[in-house]
Amino acid sequence: MADPSNIQSAASKSIRPFRSSEEYLYAMKEDLAEWLNTLYDLDVQVENFMDVLETGYDLCQHANNVNRIALEFQQSNPEAASRMRIPQKEVIFQAKNVVPGSFIARDNISNFIQWCRQELGIQDVLMFETNDLVLKKNEKNFVLCLLEVARKGSKFGMLAPMLIQMEEEIEEEMRDQVVCGELKTEQAIQDLGPKSPIYLNKTQRITLCDLKNLDELVSFLPSAGPFCLIY
């Protein structure tokens, strides 16, 4: 395994301007490349991102690693795992002498795609097709799918790309603020006394922000004009 400091180098990138969807896709590929290099000691770069993965071998290997870590999580946290979707089906693939674009490469990719849909339940809007990788014609959906796979794996304790780590930190902060707000509201009602005409609506929640999914965000970029995204 490569030095974990590789992926942490992304933390030094402060606020980066993205003027187009192409620039944002570049940033996501950069993040995923660092992540894959850390996990598997690969040599993935933004420029060869799809070339390195086009045999499907590394994708299938990663899928089976997610299965393994998910099983370990289930064994050590049975209560939490009972409320989660645990991937279990092993992905069958061929690793030796796989020629890009060959039937074997296509079969590897197809098996990975099937695993994403059936075992992780990834929605079609974030999925790619075999030809998207083989022919390199739908880079956006391929990148979005890998990010979603990384997000699912992080729920079981697998190392995630910096983009996903930052999302999780934001979600945790949001939960903390909601809990804090509810406690303050309940305390205020108690201070008013039992005869207070104010009632607490348990179903009401404070929405701190409207987070778009990755596909919506990328689709939004071309018409949004210049803006900055924390990355």
**Which percent band covers the strand fraction?**
under 5%
Distance between the termini: 24 Å
Number of strands: 2
**Looking at the structure, what is the overall shape?**
globular
Going by helix content, strand content and strand pairing, the class is: mainly alpha
Task: Report the total helices.
Answer: 10
Oligomer: single chain
SSE sequence, one letter per element? HEHHHHHHHHHE
Task: Estimate percent helicity.
Answer: 55-70%
Core attributes:
10 helices, two-stranded antiparallel ribbon, disordered C terminus, globular, mainly alpha, 231 residues
Give an overview of the whole structure.
By secondary structure, the protein is mainly alpha-helical. 57% of the residues lie in helices and 3% in strands. It is built from ten helices and two strands; from the N terminus they run αβαααααααααβ. It has helices spanning 5-8, 21-40, 49-53, 57-76, 78-81, 103-118, 130-134, 139-154, 162-192, 214-224; strands at residues 15-18, 227-230. Strands 1-2 form a two-stranded antiparallel ribbon. α4 runs parallel beside α6 (103-118). The two termini are 24 Å apart. The model is unreliable at 6-15, 195-212 and 220-231 (pLDDT under 50).
